[in-house]
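TICKET: design request
STATUS: open
ATTACHED STRUCTURE:
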């Protein structure tokens, strides 16, 4: 009997010890692996656009998730970009978000990341086939197509278009190609005007083109360089009222407020950043659908201080 009691007592003590150990283990904090989101951009990280993208990206992350956001400024040169990106030490589960930095020369590096289980999101980049990569927003060529399509359907006039683009600027040239693609198919009359760096030469070139036309044209500004001064010259000196643009920059909004630009196709960088952060949770197609619905909006003077747009038209504090 005494032997049985000893055995029972031993079992009780073992059970108590097991319960105590389990209790202590449950009280320990759950150890999680830190994942990194690397936001790399060929645009200045201090630009309001990138600041809005980063604000949207941070808003998309649950504070309880163990995720670290890092930023990386990239040069314009593709070879230099490849060298810098190849030195990034990334782990499976990490995410890389590239903004306007993608070029064909980077394809091997990006495919290598995807093969390692690293998530990849491209913002406003050419639509190329990269297995399992998420692509958000519109490429410059798609931006030009959308701009020409919307204006052609809403203009209600046979007045010719002037497509003004910045010479030797890759993004501006790609927007021009997109606009041409649509206008060629629609049969809309248009002329092309290459803008140089010299403002006086630009004004003289625009004046020459306008003088050759029988009616006032609708001018589409496909680049943001010196856009405010050009728009003012077109509107105030040449009495052209149908001036349209595309982009996200403080001087564009100033030109709209002054009445020099009639309408601007404005991207929503905050929504882009939020959608980019969600690509690790959603299927790429779902994220792409969300981004394209939320990221571009026609903005006119009456919209500038509309609370509906204020959160992304102006930099967040």
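STATUS: resolved
RESOLUTION: sequence designed for all positions
ATTACHED SEQUENCE:
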């Amino acid at each position: 009997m005494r032997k049985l009691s000893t055995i029972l007592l031993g079992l009780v003590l073992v059970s108590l010890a097991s319960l105590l150990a389990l209790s202590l283990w449950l009280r320990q904090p759950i150890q999680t692996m830190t994942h990194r989101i690397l936001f790399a951009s060929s645009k200045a990280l201090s630009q309001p656009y990138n600041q809005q993208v980063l604000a949207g990206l941070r808003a998309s992350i649950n504070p309880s998730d163990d995720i670290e956001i890092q930023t990386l400024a990239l040069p314009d040169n593709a070879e230099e970009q490849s060298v810098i990106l190849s030195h990034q030490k990334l782990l499976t589960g990490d995410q890389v978000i590239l903004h306007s930095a993608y070029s064909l020369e980077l394809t091997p590096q990006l495919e290598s990341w995807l093969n390692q289980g690293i998530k990849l999101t491209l913002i406003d980049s050419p639509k190329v086939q990269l297995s399992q990569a998420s692509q958000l927003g519109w490429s410059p060529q798609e931006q030009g197509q959308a701009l020409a399509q919307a204006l052609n359907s809403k203009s209600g006039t046979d007045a010719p278009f002037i497509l003004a683009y910045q010479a030797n600027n890759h993004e501006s040239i790609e927007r021009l190609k997109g606009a041409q693609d649509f206008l060629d198919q629609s049969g809309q009359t248009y002329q092309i005007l290459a803008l140089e760096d010299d403002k006086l030469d630009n004004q003289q070139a625009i004046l020459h083109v306008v003088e050759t036309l029988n009616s006032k044209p609708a001018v589409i500004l496909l680049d943001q360089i010196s856009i405010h001064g050009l728009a003012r010259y077109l509107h105030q000196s040449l009495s052209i009222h149908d001036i349209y643009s595309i982009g996200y920059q403080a001087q564009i909004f100033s030109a709209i407020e002054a009445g020099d630009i009639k309408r601007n196709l404005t991207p929503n960088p905050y929504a882009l950043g939020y959608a980019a952060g969600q690509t690790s949770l959603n299927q790429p197609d779902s994220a792409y659908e969300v981004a394209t619905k939320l990221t571009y909006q026609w903005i006119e003077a009456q919209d500038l201080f509309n609370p509906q747009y204020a959160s992304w038209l102006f930099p967040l504090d």
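CLOSING REMARK: The two ends are 78 Å apart (CA to CA). The mean pLDDT is 81.
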